[in-house]
Amino acid sequence: MSDLIDDPTPGQNAPEFTVSEISGAVKKTIEGAFGRVRVRGEVGRVMLARSGHLYFDVKDDRSVLAAVSWKGQVSRLSIRPEEGMEVIVTGKLTTFGSQSKYQLNVDDVVVAGEGALMAMLEKRKKALAAEGLFAPERKKKLPFLPEVIGVVTSPSGAVIRDILHRLRDRFPRKVLIWPVAVQGESCAPQVAAAIEGFNRLTPGGALPRPDLLIVARGGGSIEDLWGVNEEIVARAAAASEIPLISAVGHETDTTLIDFVSDLRAPTPTAAAEHAVPVRMELLAWTEEQGTRLTRSLEQALTQRGQRLRDMARALPRPDTLLDTPRQRLDNASHKLPSALRHLTQHRRVKLSEASAGLRPRVLTARIAPMRDRLAMAATRLDPSRITDANKRRALDMTNLSARLDRAFRANTKSHNDRLLALERMRQTLGYTETLKRGYAVVRGDGHVVTSQVAAAKAKALEIEFADGRLALDGGASPQPSPQSPTRKAKPKKDAPDQGSLF
Length: 502
Description:
Layout: H1 19-33, E1 36-48, E2 54-59, E3 64-69, H2 71-74, E4 86-96, E5 101-111, H3 114-130, E6 148-153, H4 158-170, E7 174-179, H5 187-200, E8 212-217, H6 231-238, E9 244-248, H7 256-260, E10 263-264, H8 268-275, H9 279-313, H10 318-356, H11 360-380, H12 383-429, H13 431-436, E11 441-444, E12 447-448, H14 452-457, E13 460-465, E14 468-473, E15 479-482
Helix pairs in contact: 4-8, 5-6
């Protein structure tokens, strides 16, 4: 620090430093003395800034150490710090001169022991359960025989070989593999992206959308399986529209994705067994059902035939059914000749009775009255009588037309008189008649003025009298506005009385 020390001012023993010099000296001292360190403690306050930087505290029972991870470092952290976690952080101790504080720039975070991991897992499990992501009614039913199966796992491990081998033995299906990292810091985002990617595929497209998803990996420690315990993976599995089977680890391993998946398989091989049925068992079951169907059909036909034969034995013989109709036919044939003779004789009698009325004298007696009525009708159709009748009708029509004309004139005159009376009443009730009695109408700016206040506000006034209008504008001499006198309607001459039709 000798390079920062200036010569003391005369009369003073202590040297003077600037604030920046002190801050820089402290920064060099702390970074030089500690450098890169590993610190164990409990995570306190955690804050993710809008800029992407992560600020948190690492504390023990006596002290608190401020820690920060810059935006680029946050994406590379294997575990995101959460409040209450017991962690071991690794980073570089430095200072923040703007606030006179020291802090640890963290680039790696690991959980301090399996107990802390299990406590964090329980905390996440309770939070997701409170949101209802573990509810049984959210579980989707697996398809009985999926056409396409999507598998999210590592393409180079033994897990995918076990799944493919088991599917080939039971019922071969199309398999789409989405390769992901099954452990490490990139495991969680890759698994979540794979689940979302399978759900975004278009059904029936060039790359078919799976009917069933399997998320699988082999066994390992809790640290190895921690990638599928991340909240991002659990939420992606819960939001999947495709039914999902989780097959992570061995039967004793329990991960967060097991609770949100639609079915948990103890092993990847068991997941393949749950995905498809056994083809040979299906064939055997189908053959058994066909045999049962054939046997049932033969039995039904035998029963129907036996019942038909039983019913046929209860029916009478055909000859017995025709005996009675045959006897009725014989009786009718025996009675037919006598019935024809009787009917012919009866018709002959009626014909004789009808011909008796057609004798010449009888016809002449019937025709004579008809001839008389015809002569009377001819007399009424005489041309001279028809002409006289027409003349009488024409005279009546002329008289009627004259009466109608008189009635029309009288009615018109009555309506005209009534109209004139209404016009005289209208003029009497109008304001112009009131003006003749000495009144006047005052208008201001084109509107009728009814008060002194309105007259004072008007820019120009106009007074209307019975004989004209007087304009008052800005103190100028009043200009009379003559108004043409109202013409009185000349009474019409009374039309000659035409009489009344009635």
